Amino acid sequence: MNEKEGMKSSICIPALALLLVVNQCLGFQNLFPSFSPPKISLPRKEAGSKDLEDELLKAIDELGDSRLANDARVTELVLSLEQTKSIPTPAIATEVYGRWKLIHTNNANTASPIQRKAVDTSKFAIYQDIVFNEKKQLVVSQVVKFSDDAELKVDALASTSAYPLDELTERKGDGKIFGLNILGVSKIGDEAEEDKDRPDSRINFVFDEGNFELGSLKIPYPVPFRLPILRDAVKGWIDITYMSDRVRISRGNKGTTFVLVKENTVSR
User: Does the pTM of the predicted model rise above 0.85?
Assistant: First the structure.
């Protein structure tokens, strides 16, 4: 076995397991039902977002070397920030574009041991890039960094009112196959309607392709995202429930909540 083949073998197996978790954490397809925190009615605040952000980042930091937990204090701060004034129309605001780093998600109760182990450690950085391809289409990319020159990148074509994508019609199926939860159960129909009180806060997406990038070597991710029979099942959305120039809170189409911090920006 040559050096490149050995590298492929050592990277691909953990990357496959980790991709399941990345998808789960960032609102994409998962293999298990999602945990949704209880809805709490809180008064909207006109000030204090910066202080709440500081408290949230501190609370997450105090969880230690983990991105995956159901922590009461973090949940409380997330809910408080979601009721606080933030950047309006976040899905099309300038601040949304660029690289965001995942620092927390709350699906500990529904993760498998492999999933939990993969995302529960911060050994590998996980990013979400909201960028544009060469066709000027909006793309949401999930990136797992194994090292400076090794990563797994999965791209989804995205759609907002600013960058509509005709293909992204409403999802029809909830993801169950013959009644079994194999791909993960998605909200559909009335349950999946956008919040009218939060205009332009949703980014719709459909998986398009994925690759392991090992230096100059690119290995296609072995899932046929473009296969017509799977196309509905790989659709989804993320709702941005709070965003500033440094923190974003989002909920995915399976109820996953995740917290990200801004790494850098991109020009449109």
Answer: no
